[in-house]
Amino acid sequence: MKRALISVSDKTGVVEFAKALVKLDFEIISTGGTKKILEENGVVTIGIEEVTEFPEMLDGRVKTLHPMIHGGLLFRRDLETHVKEAKLHGIKPIDLVCVNLYPFQETIQKPDATLSEAIENIDIGGPSMLRSAAKNYQSVTVLVDEADYKPVLAELEEGEVKDATRAKLAAKVFRHTAFYDALIAGFLTEDEFPEKLTIPYDLKQSLRYGENPHQKAAFYKEPLSQASGISNANQLHGKELSYNNIRDTDAALKLAAEFTEPAAIAVKHMNPCGVGIGETIFDAYEKAYEADKTSIFGGIVALNREVDAKTAQRLSEIFLEIVVAPSFSEPALAILTKKKNIRLLTVDFSNFAPSFERVSVGGGLLVQDSDSLSENPETFTVVTEKKPTDAEMRALLIQWKIVKHVKSNAIVVGNDVQTLGIGAGQMNRIGSAQIALNQAGEKAKGAVLASDAFFPMDDTVLAAAEAGITAIIQPGGSIKDTDSIEMANKHGIAMVMTHVRHFKH
Predict the structure, then answer these.
(1) Helices (H), 10-124
(2) For a designed S-S bond to 107, which of 15, 121, 169, 353 qualifies (C-beta 3.0 to 4.6 A apart)?
(3) What single-letter DSSP state applies at residue 377?
(4) Element holding 256 (H helix, E strand)
């Protein structure tokens, strides 16, 4: 007769699994609550104390940490010395282990969880049994996931669990215990950049492909994150999101979160192509659409207010990949869901908390905190003879919010209600400026210009002057700042220096 050790926190499906094992001639070893529920349902079990001949102690902290348990899991059946040693000490083999762990994650997610509660929900015996069984997977079948019960039973009914299945289950166990330990390490770690970085993620969604059809991809979510954002979005309509959809929507949401007033953000290829501010969300979308009627086609639109029927009707008039907002009115949903290919998402806009950004590089990972600096305009400096008017200053502050979300080198031309031209990702700043100014065209006259970093030369200021720009906002800090200031003075342009750079690579 074979032995199975079953000790689970999540008891979903465990009674049926244990009964099936008994029918397959297994005897069941169990502990605590699992033993109780199995016996209440007619499954005869052997208590851990009967195996170890040692009582559970220290409020349950020690019960399975014993050679009679770990010896039964770890001894190699193919080594005569191991077999003899186990027999000498009366250690019986344990052939199957079904264990899941104390609910540490669920505990620390409770708003009122205390440190003491968290510590008591750090499982020690469970991971130890899982690791012992997984190390000896050639002889022991180990399960940590209820989804594996039926497949394992099916193989047992055919005779035995296949070698490949046991190996696969063992790998799953080590992923599971590593994830569990990473959660604990993250909870206890106070250093921003510790000497070892262990970051747990849950698979949220398998993707059809990555940036291109020949690239494989998947979407993972931080298990403890309750922050507003794409990973916590709720999809109401449309086919599943693609890799590029997810990245573009993330970019749109981060910019939309900059505004407290009604705002609409249109994004293509992770850059905003149109941003509008309005008294209502309809007004905001109208301005975002007018900002670049060409690029918005096939783009992502993020709105920071509920979508009403009037706005939905306008949104439905062009092809959009995604519309994301805090909510949609019922009439708005009725209008937009008529479009088969549009994806509709809702996101809670109340909790856009700063987080760390991680970027993979060859053989490594770059980590930085997010560019969420709270800037005080009172620390900005007017460096030109001309001072910006109140209207110009409002426009400068709005475009300054936007330019930090544009790929560097970044130049944004706009006014106090919308963008008029955006130059992104060029290898030199004048190139980005020319794109933004050309896009703005005649509308550049009387508009303002924002630059994410300083002007290395005065050519951007000259180009802005020739296009009719009246005010500029930029970080400053170039050894040739004086040249740019003199050029601005020459053409009657107000220039504000923020003393903060916003590169976005």
Answers:
(1) 14-23, 32-40, 48-52, 67-74, 80-88, 104-109, 115-120
(2) 121
(3) G
(4) helix 243-256
Q: CA of 248: how far to CAs of 16, 205, 251, 347, in Å?
A: 45, 17, 5, 15
Q: Which of 269, 310, 339, 491 is catalytic?
A: 269
* pLDDT value of residue 144: 94
Residue 273 contacts residue 267 (beta carbons within 8 Å)? yes
Full DSSP string of 197-235: -----EEEEEES-SSSTTS-EEEEE-TT--SSSGGG-EE
Q: Among 135, 168, 204, 310, which one carries the catalytic annotation?
A: 135
Q: What is residue 111's predicted lDDT score, i.e. its pLDDT?
A: 87
> Hey, what are 332's tokens?
């708005």
Identify the DSSP state of 357: E
Taking alpha carbons only, the member of 384, 397, 386 closest to residue 483 is: 384
State the CB neighbour count (10 A cutoff) for residue 424.
24
State the DSSP string of 422-485.
EE-S-SSHHHHHHHHHHHHGGGGTT-EEEESS--SSSHHHHHHHHHT--EEEE----TTHHHHH
6 conformational bin, left if phi > 0, alpha if psi -120 to 50, beta if neither: beta
**How do beta strands 234-237 and 271-277 pair?**
unpaired
Q: What is the pLDDT of residue 173?
A: 96
pLDDT, tens digit (0-9, with 9 covering 90-100), for 429-484 = 999 999 999 999 999 999 999 999 999 999 999 999 999 999 999 999 999 999 99
Question: pTM for the whole thing?
Answer: 0.87
What is the predicted pLDDT for the residue at 60?
66
199: closest CA among 371, 360, 424? Answer: 360
Burial of 179 from C-beta contacts in 10 A (0-12 / 13-18 / 19+): middle
* Mutual angle of helices 149-157 and 14-23, in 10-degree steps: 10
Q: What is the chain's length? A: 505
pLDDT at 59: 66
Phi, psi of 396 (to 5 degrees): -60, -45
Report the C-alpha gap between 399 and 266 in whole angstroms.
15
Would you say 126 and 100 are in contact if contact means Cβ atoms under 8 Å apart? yes
Three-state DSSP class for 182? helix
- Please, what is the end-to-end C-alpha distance for the chain in angstroms? 63
The neighbour count for residue 89, using CB atoms within 10 Å, is 11
Contact between 444 and 437 under an 8 Å Cβ cutoff? The reply is: yes
**Active-site annotation holds for 135:** yes
C-alpha dist (Å) from residue 37 to 8, 48, 50 = 11, 15, 18
Please tell me whether the peptide bond between 409 and the residue prior to it is cis, using omega within 30 degrees of 0: yes
Determine whether 269 is an active site residue. yes
